[in-house]
């Protein structure tokens, strides 16, 4: 039952659904009926739906037939009316056809004219459209042509700007044209081309400034020299000259030139040609020689292209490489000043360019980068100068090098680079300069001393006298009163040496100029160098002359006189240094000149050499002594060799009149002592094994001749018998043996009032032994003679007592 109810319910729902679909088909447009029919086919009651559809169609057909039957009479009437109208329509058609034929005939020309007008209008429209399109394309083509022209004339930065306008403003308006697509495709290539060309220009610029760095540096150093000369003139006289342009103004000028769009500013000239100016004309500014436009253009181009950092790194890397090349000195730089000058010019040129780049660009180089380069340059430059300057042996070259270094430092200081280390290094070179000066003056002094005649300077006129006085500070009232011709006490090397010392002081002063030293430091430097000259160079030169083998007593005497006068002139040298440095000698820590000590040492060396020389001459005469120690004859006169020796001594001491009294007295005393000692050695030497009383008498005559010479006072200033004391040992020894006064000697030995106080028991025993041996050999039969036996016993007794004295003295 329920199943029947359910089937009925489903049947009712299906019938309602079919009715809805049929209403939808009737009311819906044919194009949209598809979904409706699909819902029918999707269902399961397709057959029942078709039946309902057939029923609905039949219903509509019956309604149509009813409607047609209702209107049929009206339809017949309408057909009748239409048949009547057809006749009229045919007439109208004929009239229209006729009218049309006439119209066609009459309007044929008009049609042709209208066709022509149509074509004209079409062409006009096409032309107008073409003009409009061309008006859009022409600016693009013009910009592209301008771009090509700028590329051709190497105006790369304007070309890049043109390319930007072309890409962002003009090409988007005509982007649908094929030629525009070609242009768009070429834009990256053009950018790379501009980038490459600008980089090529930069490389040419870098290569150009590398080659012309010395020219740039030379110009900068000339400017610095001119400024320094101008400053010196301003210090000496009122300021009347024109002011030098400041560096800031110079940079402003450069910025103006860079911003100029004239063709000249676009030329990659790198280094401009500058003719050599005359000395009296203004030297062009160092940056005026350089056209920096390639750097600026390349920087702007890379900045626009977003590759500024790449450009900065490349520029700095290349300039570092160039800096290393510039700082590498040539191996022969030390040979000439031009080698140093070219080296400095290149360094100055390099840093002038970098300094200008620093101040005219924003960030291409910075202060830290410049400082790093300068620190490297400073260390390498100082190392190179230390190495190469050590090879310089010419003081003039060292002085020129110093002036060049000062100019180099002053030039770079103008551009803000710290140069204190260079001035510190100059103080090191100052010591080397002093050494080269000392070597040079060593040769000068050697030539002066070698060429001197060691004779007093003769003058025959007032003019000659004043000339010598002008060269050397000498005052002697007695000499001034003497008539011409007359002689100065010193030889020519005195004024020459004095003037050379002053020249040396001037040379030291030259080096101290422009070193920014105080007067005290300059004074101290000059005094220390002068002391080295006096104590080492001049002293060694004098010592070498004094120690020469062929030096004569006359030369030695003159050297003593000369050094005495040079010693007196030291105070004038002190005044000379004080005048040129304006530092008073009383100033604290002022170094004193050691000239007095130097000349005293030289004089003492000469005195010692005189003493040595005299002793050598005495020894030469003593070598001629030929005593017959076995003679029995008593002589009547002194030996010939000794007479000649005394004559030599007299003539020699006569030359000592100009020497200081003590020197002559010391020389005379030294000669007499040496003579007495040599005679004593001659008497006691081991080769003389025996001697007779006759030989001793002859020796006594020679000693008396020496004593006579001493008493004659060969050199004034000795007290009575002072000089004779040199022979007192010989005199007492000879008196003891000749007078045979042994009893007195032995009795008074050791007492201060002893007559033979100067006789040494050892000496007496030695001489006695030689006489004892002689007595034994010459008196073969002495034992048979009572007197001889007694004498022999006495000699033995005396010898025994002498040995006792000697042994007791030793104990």
UniProtKB/TrEMBL annotation:
Exocyst complex component EXOC6/Sec15 N-terminal domain span: 52-221
UniProtKB keywords: Coiled coil, Exocytosis, Transport
GO CC annotations, alphabetized: exocyst; plasma membrane
Entry superkingdom: Eukaryota
Pfam family, one: EXOC6_Sec15_N
Coiled coil regions in record: 82-109
GO biological process per UniProt: Golgi to plasma membrane transport; intracellular protein transport; vesicle tethering involved in exocytosis
Region (Disordered): 257-280
Location of the Exocyst complex subunit EXOC6/Sec15 C-terminal domain: 421-770
Functional description taken from the UniProt entry: Component of the exocyst complex involved in the docking of exocytic vesicles with fusion sites on the plasma membrane.
Sequence similarity: Belongs to the SEC15 family.
Protein name (database record): Exocyst complex component
Species name: Bos mutus grunniens (Wild yak)
Name of the encoding gene: EXOC6B
